[in-house]
Specification:
Two copies of one chain form a homodimer. The relative contact order of chain A is 0.20. In chain A, helix 8 links the parallel strand 10 and strand 11. Chain A is α/β, with parallel strands linked by helices and 341 residues long. Chain A starts with a strand and ends with a strand. In chain A, helix 2 crosses helix 3 and helix 7 crosses helix 8. The first copy, chain A, has two domains: 171 residues, Peroxisomal Thiolase, Chain A, domain 1; 153 residues, 3-Layer(aba) Sandwich (Peroxisomal Thiolase, Chain A, domain 1), CATH 3.40.47.40. Helices cover 36% and strands 25% of the residues of chain A. In chain A, the strands form two sheets. In chain A, strands 1, 2, 3, 4, 5, 6, 8, 9, 10, 11, 13 and 14 form a twelve-stranded mixed sheet that branches. A two-stranded parallel ribbon of chain A has the order 7-12. The radius of gyration of chain A is 18 Å and the shape is globular. The interface between A and B is large, with 55 and 55 residues.
Chain lengths: 341, 341
Amino acid sequence: MKKQGQTYFFDSPARIIGHAGVAGKKEGEGPLGKEFDVIFEDTSLGQDSYEMAESAMLHDAFIRALSNADISPQSVNAVMCGDLLDQCVGSCFALKDLEMPFIGMYGACSTMALTLCNACFYIESGVETVAVGASSHFASSERQFRFPLEYGGQRTPTAQWTVTGAGSAILQNPAVASADNLQNAPKITAVHIGTITDLGIKDANNMGAAMAPAAARTIGDFLNDTGTKPTDYDLIVTGDLGLTGTKLLYELLQKEYNIDIRKVHKDCGLMIFDLKEQDVHSGGSGCGCSASVLCSYLLNNMESGKYRKILFTATGALMSPTSCKQGHPIPGIAHSVLIEK
Amino acid sequence: MKKQGQTYFFDSPARIIGHAGVAGKKEGEGPLGKEFDVIFEDTSLGQDSYEMAESAMLHDAFIRALSNADISPQSVNAVMCGDLLDQCVGSCFALKDLEMPFIGMYGACSTMALTLCNACFYIESGVETVAVGASSHFASSERQFRFPLEYGGQRTPTAQWTVTGAGSAILQNPAVASADNLQNAPKITAVHIGTITDLGIKDANNMGAAMAPAAARTIGDFLNDTGTKPTDYDLIVTGDLGLTGTKLLYELLQKEYNIDIRKVHKDCGLMIFDLKEQDVHSGGSGCGCSASVLCSYLLNNMESGKYRKILFTATGALMSPTSCKQGHPIPGIAHSVLIEK
């Protein structure tokens, strides 16, 4: 393994041998509807609560990813997972019956990138197979962070719509991956672990502004660490900055790093919904946003050969309802994963 | 790296080159009072809220551990940390000003063992220096999981007292550790990542019963994987099973594995308080319990040579206030770390 700045380059890049992105009805009606492995028209998934619906959805994503990789849960050496619910119970209840060694992680909306980063170090150390994933659900998140849906609260223009979705990916050590998987599976060649960045944003309805500084820092540092420029990538994808956060990201990268990523940048929060038609204000958000987009649209298009080099940078706002009510700022974080075909 | 079952044996065991355990007033009055690096007589730590007090305490533990290891935050390649507060904000606010690449983890009371396990894979893959830690605070936890202190709720006999405490350890790759550190620092030679274990316990005031099955499974499997017996260890330490959970652990290990660990077993939740004098019912609990005991008493006594081989197994109850109110069971998890001198 080599290291430059906070960027690590792996000797044994993990292969993504299976993946699945699943989503709810509203996400299914958006521009990426055809890409998801399944769309749940009934977002309660037949469960007694939206919390359990989120777990059922995440469970489904893992089962599909395992099936896609053609391996059993018993072959997985560790599963790394997180969500937005208190005490990460979304992941716990999703995974408990699958009997895989469990590593709970929390990176808010950056969780998919966080688990991918973490898994790569396990693979580099010699671990064979790691499953990763993340989820969010609009209804459980609204209750968690704002108000139950029944309250009918109004949303501000900068507010984002928490995605009902989940993604899972199965990573394997190239030393044990089959020849077929080595041939076609995208690999993670480098990762960058982010540092908490706090510019004092306090508006809990403006996650994009809270996360943009961290995204700018991680992307800027990654490009500097690797000595690359934006056009070296097919795509630089952020997690869920939305409209407001994306504008800020462009400004910050220009001002602080003299970098312009506009030509190759997409944001999962802007890809998953049609902002004009779907009334989601500033775009999508939540762990499940970048997780479901990566594990469906992005990885599908890497496998087909449309994209060959993607810098996936998921961003997270590190706050709780309590910290916001107590008037504290919302620090952001962003982790980057370089995926190559 | 070798693997047997879910147990991993490292080629480059991480060295614990610095550590600190800090605690509150009540913990300071307990049997381990003299071992802590500092005791906060004012458990508000001069902050406006108990949540911020927890963050300040955890921040203090990290600063002391870094100082003890004689390294700066800038030398740390990644910090892995977690707590019991919603959205892990205890860790986020504790660490944001230290500017270390941040990996948020959640394992409930097992978090200290979880971060240690995780750090070892990073070190094995070639990362140089990793900081780990965990915290809990009685007053922030009561508000989080039960009722604010002002409510004056009565506690059941099986209830445990959440420890006001934090622990931090600095792990270094032997390839870069100084000769002095290599000589005297304890090392982590093996880890075992636990699997979620759910036997259907639903009593949120009986964490010990919820966690004991996971502890029995992880310890039993570890001993089988390593082909060792309890008397091969100076100590087998569990996180915070308390009185009720410890009795259950003995029963389950006997019944399911035919193993008796009584002679070498201690529980951090029973070590940190005097159950007869301190009115803590079934003992201590919380991430900060095993974190503060490991990073003070246990590691102090390894460095002095009193203990040479400790199996540290922290246990966690994977529930949230919402999941309990919705009538769901409380799955448990336990991760093991073998620390040798």
